[in-house]
UniProtKB/TrEMBL annotation:
Protein's recorded name: Probable 2-phosphosulfolactate phosphatase
Catalytic EC class: hydrolase
Pfam families: 2-ph_phosp
GO molecular function, one term: magnesium ion binding
Species annotation: Gemmatimonas phototrophica
Keyword terms, alphabetized: Hydrolase, Magnesium
Transport keyword on record: no
Gene symbol of the encoding locus: comB
Catalytic activity: (2R)-O-phospho-3-sulfolactate + H2O = (2R)-3-sulfolactate + phosphate
Protein origin, superkingdom: Bacteria
EC numbers on record: 3.1.3.71
Family: Belongs to the ComB family.
Cofactor(s) this protein cannot do without: Mg(2+)
Length: 248
């Protein structure tokens, strides 16, 4: 079994994900926000690359069924119901609703995973649950690609640290693992943070930028390890809790 990590600085090619178990990571903030929404009772999160596509898809639903959500340049687009802060996605706001969702980095990374055998969306808040889900998905034999969403086509430290944690967990106890160069880099980058991830807030450029723009509480929420015992699966163009059958 081979594990490759794409570090977020180049487009994802179809061959990178074809027939593989894929994990897309976007710690700040999309994957954290999606895990929060689903843990708090959202029916599904449907990702879109553009704001226009999100608004158009909303017309297929009754208004009370959906919430339009996401960000551009860190802030909520005009006419959207929710931004990209995980703190907004309370049970009161999302329970029983479908979230139509578009962000700068995370949703584009997800759409690049078409052709994967199975695909998960992960952050620190559900890292352990994601590792367990991936290991279960590997029972029938497959290779793994971990895709770091990055930040505007640049490497994002927080995603690489999370990728290293996932590689370490997926490989634990297995003697058949071949690590690609990206996986080795991710494990090396993660090593100083094994004892705790809080210092990522001070070392990651994107975390510092969010904090400087008033989202320090979001950064802290995103750096909470294993807060949710849920794995998020991307299937049939929807994000749902792993094991839940897609609807609509």
């Amino acid at each position: 079994m081979r594990i490759d990590v794409l570090l977020g600085e180049a487009p994802v090619a179809p061959a990178d994900v074809a027939d593989r178990v894929v994990v897309v990571i976007d710690v700040l903030r999309a994957a954290t926000t999606v895990a929060t929404a689903l843990a708090n009772g959202a029916r599904a999160v449907i990702p879109f690359e553009t704001i226009e596509e999100t608004v158009m898809r909303a017309k297929a639903y009754a208004r009370g069924e959906v919430q339009l959500a996401g960000e551009r340049r860190m802030v909520r687009p005009e006419s959207f119901d929710l931004g990209n802060s995980p703190l907004e996605y309370t049970a009161e706001a999302v329970s029983g609703r479908t979230i139509l969702y578009s962000t700068t980095n995370g949703t584009a990374a997800l759409t690049s995973a078409q052709g994967a055998r199975s695909c998960f969306f992960a952050a620190f808040v559900n890292a352990a649950a994601t590792v367990a889900a991936v290991r279960e998905a590997l029972n029938d034999g497959a290779d793994v690609t971990v895709v770091c969403a990055g930040h505007e086509r640049h490497l994002a430290l927080e995603d690489v640290v999370c990728a290293g944690r996932l590689v370490r967990g997926i490989a634990e106890g297995r003697h058949d693992v071949v690590r690609g160069d990206g996986a080795r880099v991710a494990e090396a980058v993660e090593r100083p943070f094994v004892g705790g991830i809080a210092s990522v807030a001070f070392e990651a450029a994107h975390a510092r930028s969010l904090a400087a723009n008033g989202f320090e509480a979001d950064v802290q929420a995103c750096l909470s390890l294993d807060r949710f015992d849920v794995a998020v699966r991307y299937h049939d163009r929807q994000l749902q809790l792993a094991g839940v059958t897609a609807s609509r």
